[in-house]
């Protein structure tokens, strides 16, 4: 039954007339994202872990705009990276200590202990990493404490796990290594213990150049392609966006290359939070996950999700901007044009739906002088309403009788087949 529901969802959301289409459109960059209940997704500085065919997304819940305080870490799940379901508030500020900021959460599964291990940035008057564990990926995590890595300071960080199970903490920090004993920003990689509960040793360190602010990096995110590691970072500039750069190496211990720019001068107005790699039946794809921070109202910070691409040499990387694109998690592929990957044709149209989200009425414009059937369906394919319209350029649909959630308006005519997505808030 679950497979049937998923197939119905994929068919509806594919924006095509092909029932075989598996490519689903991502939620829009720079906008609010919504879960399957129609609520705003609150998961800033997020990261991902895949368990079976399901992706779990962790991120911080913030209050705003009055106090901008950290409140908790949220967990969401998805099988298609488009439709996200809220699972749990996995750790709260009260669990950690109400005066402690929690951010940049990351989770790994430890085969030895059969536990999910969570690391996150935790700071008050000291900059440490926080540690928590749970027997289930989306359960209530047990806070273990706050600790220093080998550097004695912890800035932004992320986790990396090798195929053999060895895990590492990749992070930025401040160390008193300047020419006059002043603090200098470093990028470092520490090896974790076999149970992931402690930091064992440092394997790589790169201090910034005191005379060059562009070398003062933070917010490291990491991935590996064909045995080559990549670390993408941002410059230190508070909540303001700046130029991201990347370095690469064939060993975590280095040597690492000098930094090169990626994205535009402001990284499309974002800062990286994590990388997501998906491997399917036909390929492997790599995705940059970031935040468009709003320092005056952190809760209103928006999300960025973009594919990483490779130059012809197979080594250098680049990142272009797309409002949305399409992913097939089963194949492990992505495309900017779902029509081309599904090899079908569709009549050109200019349909517009507004407002979206809506709690009462949605307007749809762009109809031709023709007869159309309009169906409103939910994620499970249930039909809530079906109407016929003729010779109208714009219609008004009442949605106040629908439960909150994500819906699809399916429009069919003699020359058009179109599906529009909207949120009933």
Give the helices and strands, then pairings.
Elements: H1 2-13, E1 24-25, E2 44-51, E3 54-62, E4 70-78, E5 85-92, H2 93-96, E6 101-110, E7 115-123, E8 127-134, E9 142-147, E10 157-161, E11 167-175, E12 184-192, E13 199-207, E14 217-225, E15 228-235, E16 244-249, E17 260-262, E18 271-279, E19 284-292, E20 302-307, E21 309-310, E22 317-318, E23 326-328, E24 333-335, H3 338-342, E25 352-354, E26 361-365, E27 371-378, E28 383-390, E29 394-398, E30 405-413, E31 417-424
Describe the structure in brief.
The protein is mainly β. Helix content is 5%, strand content 49%.
Helix content: under 10%
Low-confidence parts, pLDDT < 50 over ≥5 residues? 1-21, 340-348
Structural class: mainly beta
Summarize model confidence as the mean pLDDT.
Answer: 88
């Amino acid at each position: 039954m679950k497979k049937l529901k998923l197939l119905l969802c994929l068919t509806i959301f594919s924006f095509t007339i092909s029932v075989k289409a598996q490519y689903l459109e991502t939620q829009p960059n720079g906008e609010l994202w919504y879960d399957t209940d129609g609520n705003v997704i609150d998961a800033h500085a997020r990261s991902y872990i895949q368990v079976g065919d399901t992706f779990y997304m962790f991120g911080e819940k913030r209050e705003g705009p009055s106090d901008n305080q950290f409140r908790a870490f949220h967990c969401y799940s998805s099988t298609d990276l488009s439709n996200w379901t809220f699972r749990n508030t996995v750790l709260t500020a009260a669990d950690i200590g109400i005066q402690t900021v929690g951010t940049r959460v990351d989770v790994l599964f430890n085969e030895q202990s059969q536990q999910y291990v969570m690391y996150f940035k935790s700071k008050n008057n000291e900059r440490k990493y926080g540690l928590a564990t749970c027997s289930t990926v989306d359960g209530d995590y047990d806070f273990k404490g706050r600790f220093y890595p080998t550097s004695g300071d912890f800035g932004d960080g992320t986790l990396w796990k090798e195929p053999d199970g060895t895990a590492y903490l990749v992070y930025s920090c401040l160390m008193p290594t300047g020419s006059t004993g002043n603090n200098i920003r470093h990028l470092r990689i520490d090896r974790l213990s076999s149970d992931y509960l402690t930091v064992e040793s440092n394997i790589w360190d790169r201090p910034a150049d005191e005379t060059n602010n562009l070398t003062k990096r933070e917010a490291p995110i990491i991935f590996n392609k064909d045995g080559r590691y990549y670390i993408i970072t941002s410059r230190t500039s508070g909540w303001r966006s700046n130029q991201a750069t990347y370095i690469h190496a064939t060993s975590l211990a280095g040597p690492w290359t000098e930094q090169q720019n990626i994205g535009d001068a402001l990284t499309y107005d974002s800062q990286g939070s994590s990388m997501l790699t998906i491997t399917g039946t036909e390929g492997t794809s790599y995705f940059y996950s970031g935040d468009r921070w709003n320092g005056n109202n952190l809760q209103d910070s928006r999300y960025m999700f973009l594919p990483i691409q490779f130059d012809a040499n197979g080594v250098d990387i680049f990142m272009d901007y797309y409002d949305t694109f399409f992913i097939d998690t089963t194949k492990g592929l992505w495309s900017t044009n779902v029509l081309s990957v599904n090899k079908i044709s569709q009549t050109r149209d200019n349909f517009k739906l507004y407002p979206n989200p809506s709690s009462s009425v949605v307007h749809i414009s762009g109809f031709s002088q023709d007869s159309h059937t309009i169906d409103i369906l939910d994620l499970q394919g249930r039909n809530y309403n079906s109407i016929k319209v003729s010779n109208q350029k714009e219609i008004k649909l009442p949605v106040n009788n629908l439960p909150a959630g994500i819906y699809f308006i399916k429009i069919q005519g003699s020359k058009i087949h179109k599906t529009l997505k909207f949120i009933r808030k």
